[in-house]
Amino acid sequence: MTIRVEKHGLQVAAEYADFIEKSALPGTGVQVDAFWQGLSQLVHDFGPENRSLLAKREEIQGQIDAWHIQHRETPHNAEAYSAFLRDIGYLLPEGDDFEIETENVDPEIAHVPGPQLVVPITNARFALNAANARWGSLYDALYGTDAMGDLPVGKGYDSARGARVIAWGRDMLDRVFPLVAGSWSDIMEVSMQGGALSPELSNSAQFAGYVGKAEAPSRVLLKNNGLHVILEIDATGTIGAADQASINDITLESALSTIMDCEDSVAAVDAEDKVLAYGNWLGLMKRDLSVEVHKGSSSFTRSLNPDLDYTKVAGAQASLKGRSLLLVRNVGHLMTNPAVLDRDGVEAGEGLMDAITTVMIAMHDLQAEGGNSQHGSVYVVKPKMHGPEEVDFACRIFDHVEQALGLPRNTVKIGIMDEERRTSANLKACIRAARYRVAFINTGFLDRTGDEIYTAMEAGPMVPKGEMKSTPWISAYEDRNVDIGLACGLKGRAQIGKGMWAMPDLMQAMLEAKAGHPQAGATCAWVPSPTAATLHVTHYHEINVHEVQDHLKAGGSRGTLQDLLTIPVMTGKTLSDDAITREIENNAQGILGYVVRWVDQGVGCSKVPDINNVGLMEDRATCRISSQALANWLHHGVVDEAQVHAAMQKMAAVVDAQNAADPDYRPMAPEFDGLAYQAACDLVFKGRVQPSGYTEPVLHARRLQLKSAAG
C-alpha cells in the first residue's frame, strides 16, 4: 500500500516527496513550500482544463466518426471533408505570416545540424552513453558494424578489415577536408608549420586547433559545417603504429543533442518509477551520475565526460563540450500517475508533475558554470499534443512553472512533436502558440500513422502498414513540416527534426537511406545508438543543411493540406489470403515482442526481433501503429477475431523462442493467460476504444496490476 503525505492539498507518495525534499530541491534555491504550492496549483487549477481538452479530443473524434459513417457508401469528397473539419473546429485559420521569437537558444539547437539521440531516462547506463555520445570513434563505428557492407568475423584485430576502415576514413577526409595537393592517404605526418596545418587544407579556415605541441600534436581539430573532427595522432597506438601519418583514429563530433525520455521509451507507472526517472535526470543535471559497468571479469565506473581543452590556431586556449546538449521529454496531456492525488483523490496529470519536477531539477545546471545550456535555457520536448489549443496550454503550464520556481519568463523552451493529425493540419498555428518558446519541431512517422488510422477509423480498412510510406499524406506531412517551420523562422532559432532509424544493426542501409533527412532540410534526425550517430554525422559534413533550407524556402511550399488529409484506405484493393496472414502475424509479433518486456520487466524501449529476426528499436509508437492497424482491419471485417487470436498465439510462441536466453523472461505460451499476453490482446481487441489509439492506458493498467500482485 502506498504511504502518502499531505502537501498543500495534495496526497503525495512518500518516496516522491522524500526525493523532492531531500535530493532534488537542495541547491536550487527553491523553498520546499514553494515547490509543493506550485505543484498543487498546477494540479488543481490546470488539471480541470487538461481534462476538458481531453474531452474535446473525444468530442471531435465522435463527430469525425459520424461523418465517415454517414458518407461511407459514397465516393470521398475532399472539399466537403475539409469544410466539415473547419465547421467542427478541427481545422483552424492559419493566421498572418510570422516568425518565432525564441531567444537564448544554444548553438546545438539553433545553428549546427547533426544527429539526435533519444534514450530512456530510467536506464542510467544508456543515459550516460548517450550524453557522452557527443564524440565517437569513426574507426570503431566502421569496424564493428556492417557500415562497409559486412560484419567483422572472428576474434582479435583483422588488419585487412582495419585497412578498409582506414581507407574509408581517408576518403571521407578527402571529400570533407580536401588538401591543396594530393590525398590524405598520401600524407606522412600531421603537424603545425608556421601557424598553419601541414598538410595544407584547401580551406584553411577548416583548421580549428590542436592538443599538445604544435610541431607534434596529439590531436588535430578540424571543423566543417559547424562540426568538429579530431585526428588522433599516436605513433604508439594500435592503429597509429602502422599508419604512415601516425593517425590512430578519427573522432567525430556526433550526437550534438540527446533527448532524455520520460515518455514513450520508459515504463513509468507509479512513484517508484518516476523517482528513478527523475533521479537520473538529477544526476545528469548535477553532473554526478555514474554507474558500474561489468564486462566479463572486469568492471569500471562510467560517468559524464569532461570538456575537451585545446589550443586555437592563433594560440588562445579554448574548450569544446564533452557532452551532448540534453533535452528532456515530458509525457503528454493524457496520462495520470498515482504518485500524486488531488484533494478529491483523483490522480494528477503526469505531464503536470513532469513539468515542474524536470524544470526544477534542471535549475542545478542553470546555476553551474559550463553546464548543459550555455544560454540559460531548459529544453522540454512535449509530445502528443492535438492542435494549437493544447500547445498554448503547455506554454501556460510552463509560465506557471517558471513563476513558481522563480525563473525568468521563457527559460523553458519546448519541442513540438508533430505526431498527431490535428497538429499536422494546424502546424503553423501550433508554432504561433509557442512562438516565444519553440526550439524544436519534428515528424514522427509511427505515432503519426497510428493517429491517422485512429482518426479515420470509420472511413474504411487502411492499407497495410508497409504501404503507408508511399501514400500521399505522408509525403505532404514530411514536406509541410519543413516548409512551415522555415516559413515561421525556425532557421537559426530552432531544430527541424526527422524520425528514428529503427534498425540498429543495419548501418550500411542507414548510411544509404538517412542522407535523405539533411537533404530534406532537417537540422537533426533521430538515430538508435551512439554508433549510429557517429556514422550519420558524416551526412551533415557532406550536406550543408542551411544551404538546403535556403533553397527550399526560395522554392515555395510543397505538399498541400488536401494531400495531408488524404485518407489511406484500401479503395478497390484486394489482398490475398497469404498477404493478410503475413500482415496479421507481422503486427502481432511486433506487439507481443514489445509488450511482454514492458509489462513483465518494465522495459519501455528495446531491440525486438521482427518476424524475420531483424532487430527493430520498439517503443510505444511502434506498438501504437501495429495495434491500430489490426484494430482497423478487425473493425471492417478484413480479418476476424479467430484469425487474430490464432496469429497472436502463434507469434507468442515465436517471441518466447526469441527470448529463450533471457533468464528473467516469462513465456506466454502455451497457457496464454499472463498479464503481458492479455495486455497485447487488449491493445488489439480494445484498440478501437482507446483514447486516440494510445497504448499507455492498457500498458500502465497491466503493469500496475503486475506490480501490485508482486507486492
Structural account:
The protein is an alpha/beta fold. The protein has 3 domains: 85-112 and 257-307 and 319-498 and 543-564, Alpha-Beta Barrel (TIM Barrel); 137-253, Malate synthase G - maily-beta sub-domain (Beta Complex), CATH 2.170.170; 577-710, Malate Synthase G, Chain: A, Domain 4 (Up-down Bundle), CATH 1.20.1220.12. It is 44% helix and 18% strand. It contains 24 helices and 25 strands. α2 packs antiparallel against α10 (388-405), α13 (445-455) runs parallel beside α21 and α23 (675-685) runs antiparallel to α24 (696-710). It starts with a strand and ends with a helix. Its main location: cytoplasm. Residues 326-566 form the Malate synthase TIM barrel domain.
Task: Give the oligomeric state of the chains in this entry, treating copies of one chain as homo and distinct chains as hetero.
Answer: single chain
Global structural class: alpha/beta
Query: In order across it, which strands form the biggest sheet?
Result: 3-11-16-19-20-21-22-23
The number of helical runs is: 24
Average pLDDT works out at 96
Could you say how many structural domains there are in total?
Answer: 3
Q: What name does CATH use for the topology of the largest domain?
A: TIM Barrel
* Rg over CA atoms: 26 Å
User: Architecture of the largest domain in CATH?
Assistant: Alpha-Beta Barrel
Shape, principal axes of CA atoms: globular
Poorly predicted runs of 5 or more residues: none
Beta percentage is 15-25%
Quote the distance from N terminus to C terminus: 9 Å
Can you summarize the main beta sheet?
Answer: 8 strands, parallel, barrel
The percent range for helix content is 40-55%
By CATH, the superfamily of the largest domain comes out as: Malate synthase, domain 3
Tally the beta strands.
25
Determine and state the CATH class of the largest domain.
Alpha Beta
